[in-house]
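Can you give me the bound-state structure? Components:
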Amino acid sequence: MIRYIAMDIRRLFKTRSFYIAMIIALILLTIYASAAYFFTGAGIPRAAAGQPALPITELLRQARKFLDFNHFASIMNTGTSMLHLILAAFAAAFISKDHHSGYLKNLYGIRDLRSKWLVSKLVVMMLAAVIFYLVYLIGAAIVTLLYDNAINTNIGALAAYYGLHLSVDLALFGLIILTVTLLQTKTAAVVVALLLSFNLQAIIYLLIDQFDLLPFDLVEYGMMGQASRLVIAGSGPVAGMMARRFQDMMASMAATPATLLPVSLGIALIAIALSWLMLRRVDYRG
Amino acid sequence: MTELLSTIKLSKKYRSKFALLDADVHIKQGDIYGLIGRNGAGKTTLLKLINSQINATSGEILMRGQKMPFGQPQVKIGALVESPGLYPDYSAYDNLMFKCIAIGHNKKAYIEQLLKLVELSDTGKKKVKQFSLGMKQRLGIALAMIDEPDLLLLDEPINGMDPQGIKDIREMLVRINRDMGTTILISSHILDELAKFASTYGIIKDGRVLLELSREQMDKENQAGIEIRSPDVEKVKAAIQTAFDITHIQQLDHESLLITQGVERHEEISRLLFDQGIYFSQFFVRHQSLEDYFVGLTGVSSK
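Here's the bound-state model for the whole set.
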């Protein structure tokens, strides 16, 4: 098992798209940070009209203080789930590559290959997610410093926030592995990854809720919906406001992201168990 | 020789059609087992079943006499089934390295030795997607050779290759079999090529294994006739008919005879003619090609 995981780790670090995924995340952060910087600059003079007590530069400085580390650390997963989207797309390509290229055929001589493949893909994808988030957080820290703000964050709260997001990634990876196990195509895996991380399932949940079949509104418990409303504990007003705004957009949901962990772990568990069962039953079609 | 692998009534059904039905094959240690059959006969299905790529509908696979549970081979298997499975964006070295890590053989010298074995040492950092078909096939064989497998499964490894590439692969397989003692199960529909180096043949048609026979048996079975050239064909004919009770003698022309019965007694026949002082200028045993034999047995061409 360790050897198989070592193989996948080596392949991960030799995969160019892994680095491209991280660069894309950093580019998006840079674009956002630049836009926010100039947007703040354009808005503050108008807001300060008639209040000449403070010079404009000071007002700008204070306004930009709200864009703190916690804000940048969470913005790409607030509302849009952009980081999940990038990770899921990368994971779909990486996981399906063994089937898509046919390389897996070379490995069937290894005893218990199917179990090893499943565990290895989960471990390596979680490792990739941790590295991906760490790189993103370094980017967020640099942007915060460029904003001339100090990096004040509660490490525990930050770890809890990313821990929850990692649980969402685990569920996404489980679903991608299940898709690859069943369909064995790269296209299907990428499409499923994109649809899931785009939160298109919320539309299906809303549709189901119209029939009042359940004692609760399913849409409130949707994994990606909950993940997109997460806030790092102790975040400044801007991050909180953005999360609340997204919550309003999603029909003023009553449920809080408190149920996210059981939902994501439940999905992950079901997807992994199904994958494990199906891996033994589904023939390799390559 | 001991039996390395055998199957007992092995079957595989896709929807309503059996791709393989009650197949019994017996592969001895050190064999080069040529699996002969036309496209769609079930050769690839058999190899996939042995390689645990697909589940059997029924039947068993035995390795060294022990039943093999699905995905738990008791002997080391290397496989090149259908096209080579390669990561196109990596070099030959990287492709080998990944499997070597998974197997626990990750040593630079070992990988370089494998590359040398398949004559790909000079490919450097060239990506596999830029390789020719022959290079990919050779790399596929190198991947299958990692960890010195007891059994090498090769499915049409010479398909689409040029004559020099075919010769290179044939020589390499003979070398691997001879020097490393690797048992090889190779399928092909290019029968004349298989005939050059296989030690045992299995003939498969419509999912059924019709026959298994050794090279010696095949050669014996393939003896199509004895052709004798003599100025006195009538004398030759009479002597053979009298001594051996052979009636299937065909006169090809005024100086040639073809005997298609009792071909295995060719030594006795030549001694008889010599002893009786009957002059003959030519005496040889005609062999069918493997292709002719296959057609005769199955009624269809292998192509």
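A couple of observations. DSSP finds ten helices and 15 strands in chain B. Chain B touches chain A through 37 residues (CB under 8 Å).
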